[in-house]
Amino acid sequence: MSKQRFIAHLDLDCFYVSVERIKNPSLNGKPVVVGGTPTGRGVVASASYEARKYGVHSAMPAGRALRLCPNLIIVQGNYGEYEDYSDRIYRRMQEFSPVVERASIDEMYMDFTGCEHLYAEDLPGLMRRLHQLVWDEFTLPCTVALSANKLVSKVAAGTAKPNGVIHVSHGSEQKFLAPLDIDVIPGIGKKTSEFLKKKGFQLVADIQKISIQQAVRLLGKHGVWIHNASNGRGTDTLSPETTRKSISNEETFGHDIADISELAKKLFLLVESVCASARSHKWKAQTITLKLRYSDFSTITRAESLPPTNDDAMVSRIVTELLRKNYTRKMAVRLLGVKLSHFIDQEGTEMPLFAQDKREPALTAVDTIRKKFGEEVIHVGGV
Questions:
Q1: How far apart are CA 46 and CA 32, in angstroms?
Q2: Per residue in 275-318, pLDDT tens?
Q3: Is 156 helix (H, G, I), strand (E, B) or coil?
Q4: What is the C-alpha separation between 86 and 278, in angstroms, rounded?
Q5: Which residue of the set 83, 107, 173, 272 is catalytic?
Q6: Is residue 220 classed exposed, middle or buried when 0-12, 13-18 and 19+ CB atoms within 10 A define those classes?
Q7: Is 107 considered catalytic here?
Q8: CA nearest 153: which of 188, 126, 184, 194?
Q9: How confident is the model over 173-220, as pLDDT tens digits?
Q10: Residue 69 in contact with residue 31, Cβ under 8 Å?
């Protein structure tokens, strides 16, 4: 096995927006965000590059995004659908790499160390192949980077976005990083960046020129990490995906709602989303949590245990009861959320435990119909 490490980073570009553009090609080439509402409520979860030209970015309040870009198109989004795409790409990458670590819903690392001979000693060529594969099979743009460790691959992907492929060869890490702004180094946040730039550190090369002792005097223990990162030293060990702890979805309303019947209907749509996601993983939840935020921003969460299930009707019934019991203030509601947790793997559980679930074939059919014809075409129960 080669002593050199080969770690790839795959980043799905503007992932949420890209998925929405598959469903609605008229969004192509236009400033689009997923998250928030057309009235300016909520927060941007993903922004297209056309929107970013106006200064719009993720985690920005939707109201500010609309002020920056008046012709912005806001899409509510379907997080269960994004998870499905992410899962399928993750499983596809496992066919090429023995170890795949998912860093987030739209990012993953792959370890190709020792696999060089499998790909004709041309791992950079494999990166180009994987880049094209994601487009051909999923119609999603992505950026792929290859280097000796996770840190350099992540930074490299950032320089090649959008829709690029890049290889930082062994021994060239410092040279590659040197001309970049210090802000590209993970761990250098806004305050640290401002501090360092006041001290004359503008480029990564400026940090490379000082000793690790000087970095520690400037930044304390954090200086060790920043100095190592600036010199291209990072971890080359990946952690395979562990069992997910929860699935959640929430909605910030375009206007505050005080009618409990209307709130229950909103809640049911959230339940459909999280249950569909759980079924796609073949998981059943034992705990359901309601999140409720009033118009004055005070927030409560209430949870209840239940027999393992991913059935929309059962989850909806319980979470609606939680809503009716706990919506006690005479004040409108700004946000509702639903979370499923404490999962049992349906496939890895003895059948008698789930023998009562005669609705499973019907629920699977419902999920298939929704994927083909849209979320609103069919529902499996009311509130």
A1: 8
A2: 988 888 888 888 899 999 999 989 999 988 777 889 999 999 99
A3: helix
A4: 14
A5: 107
A6: exposed
A7: yes
A8: 184
A9: 999 999 999 999 988 988 999 999 999 999 999 999 999 999 999 999
A10: yes
